[in-house]
């Protein structure tokens, strides 16, 4: 089993090495890294989430697997408390507290746990995981994978909403730390920390688009209010102020039509009467609410929510995931194939970023190691001490509430999921937002390259021995 665990970790490191070699050979520049990370975030990762979530979720599993979301909320709450206390003890500022929280709260819920449980099922220790005398190795692996995928649903929902916001630059960070802003200065112009997929207009808009928007504003000078995008916030500017204020052609203006102000007397014809202002006010309220919601969303989160809708809607799920249906071979299989590229792309980009650190030793002076040590300590050493007793308590006394409490695979899988290192795709978020890139790279390097194999092997052996005695 230990050999299989080492091979699973080595597979990750080999793909990372491919990215390192490609970058050293000159095929993978910083601009291409940024572009590939963005493509992965807006397309390949959503495909992965949709195919994994929609194919697994159902009302029956929601009822049968109710302990899994309870365990996830418990682990996430403990991770939040643990990360917050550790960051306070080492006296980190607000920005690095968020970094530690992101590293501790969001762990690897797919690649490593699935590889470990699959290896355990086919190893000599697999007999410990048999639920009954008729159980098989294939059934053990299938149950373990289903538990992991169901657990990952809730992890992905929180990771691509709250986790994404934790790794962004917040207002006031420049006063607390300079590292967050320094990342963008050292990288290519595409690495804007203000790049938010929840914003209404991408920061990569060409100047020509801005000039076109300016021309449209000049044509509509009779309107008194214009929406403009200023540093990711929406502000209202009257046309009188715009006439006196020089227009910056690089300013990203929204291409929405101008909306009338409530203070203005909008001319109305006899047919509309007083209904037109009310309609406009209602529409503007809906637009504002939609904008606020959209600012908090990301493409992976949209994909996860849509996957929940499809998975919980039986006709849609049958249409897309039944192998005899028309859409499965043409649409669903295409989405699944695209989703399989997400994790390798993340690892290749990780190797490319390690190359940047290798060639830029001066960047090491800009990296603060206290948050790195705090994140690794909390995630890899403290969380197992909290997770294992909780799972074993449920295994010993939870059979009166849920039948899966007596399944050894469930207990081992919950321990594995609660003790895995920081999720690999956290570096993808850091690269897109331009924040905490080098710190995240070091957390992943030490977690997967040095600590994971020996520590995780001990945790798995301990879990197997305890579960064998308790269940």
UniProtKB/TrEMBL annotation:
The keyword Cell wall biogenesis/degradation does not apply. Residues 175-208, 255-277 are annotated as: Disordered. Residues 263-272 have a biased composition (Polar residues). It comes from the Eukaryota. GO terms for cellular component: endoplasmic reticulum; membrane. Keywords: Membrane, Transmembrane, Transmembrane helix. GO terms for biological process: transmembrane transport. InterPro entries: Mem_transp_PIN-like (IPR004776). Its main location: membrane. The chain crosses the membrane at residues 6-27, 39-59, 65-87, 99-122, 142-160, 301-321, 372-397, 409-429, 441-467. Residues 199-208 have a biased composition (Low complexity). The keyword Transcription regulation does not apply. It is a multi-pass membrane protein. Pfam families: Mem_trans. This is Auxin efflux carrier. It comes from Circinella minor.
């Amino acid at each position: 089993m230990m050999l299989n665990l080492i091979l699973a970790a080595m597979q990750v490191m080999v793909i990372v090495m491919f990215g390192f070699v490609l970058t050293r050979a000159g095929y993978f520049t910083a601009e291409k890294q940024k572009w590939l990370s963005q493509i992965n975030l807006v397309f390949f990762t959503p495909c992965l989430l949709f195919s994994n979530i929609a194919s697994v979720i159902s009302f029956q599993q929601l009822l049968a697997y109710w302990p899994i979301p309870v365990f996830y909320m418990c682990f996430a709450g403990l991770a939040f408390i643990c990360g917050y206390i550790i960051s306070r003890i080492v006296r980190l500022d607000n920005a690095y507290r968020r970094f530690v929280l992101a590293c501790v709260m969001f762990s690897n819920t797919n690649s490593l746990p699935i590889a470990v449980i699959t290896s355990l099922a086919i190893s000599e220790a697999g007999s410990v995981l048999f639920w009954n005398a008729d159980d098989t190795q294939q059934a053990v692996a299938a149950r373990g994978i289903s538990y992991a995928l169901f657990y990952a649903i809730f992890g992905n929902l929180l990771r691509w909403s709250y986790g994404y916001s934790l790794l962004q630059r917040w207002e006031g960070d420049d006063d607390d730390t300079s590292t967050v802003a320094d990342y963008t200065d050292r990288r290519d112009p595409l690495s804007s920390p203000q790049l938010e997929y929840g914003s209404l207009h991408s920061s990569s808009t060409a100047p020509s688009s801005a000039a076109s928007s300016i021309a449209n504003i000049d044509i509509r000078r009779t309107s008194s209010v214009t929406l403009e995008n200023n540093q990711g916030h929406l502000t209202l500017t009257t046309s009188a102020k715009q006439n006196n204020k020089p227009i910056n052609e690089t300013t990203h203006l929204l291409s929405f039509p101008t909306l009338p102000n409530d203070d203005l007397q909008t001319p109305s014809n006899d047919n509309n009467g007083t209904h037109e202002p009310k309609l406009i006010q209602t529409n503007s309220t809906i637009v504002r609410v939609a904008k606020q919601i959209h600012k908090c969303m990301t493409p992976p989160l949209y994909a996860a929510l849509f996957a929940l809708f499809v998975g919980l809607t039986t006709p849609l799920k049958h249409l897309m995931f039944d192998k005899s249906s028309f859409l499965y071979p043409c649409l669903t299989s295409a989405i699944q194939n695209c989703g399989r590229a997400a994790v390798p792309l993340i690892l290749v980009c990780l190797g490319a970023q390690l190359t940047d650190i290798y060639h830029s030793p001066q960047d090491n002076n800009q990296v603060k190691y206290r948050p790195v040590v705090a994140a690794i300590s909390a995630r890899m050493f403290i969380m197992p001490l909290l997770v294992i007793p909780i799972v074993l308590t449920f295994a010993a006394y939870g059979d009166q509430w849920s039948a899966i409490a007596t399944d050894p695979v469930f207990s081992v899988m919950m321990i594995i999921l609660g003790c895995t290192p920081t999720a690999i795709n956290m570096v993808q978020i850091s690269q897109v937002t331009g924040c905490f890139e080098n710190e995240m790279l070091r957390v992943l390097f030490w977690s997967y390259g040095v600590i994971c194999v020996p520590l995780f092997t001990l945790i798995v052996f301990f879990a197997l021995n305890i579960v064998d005695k308790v269940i």
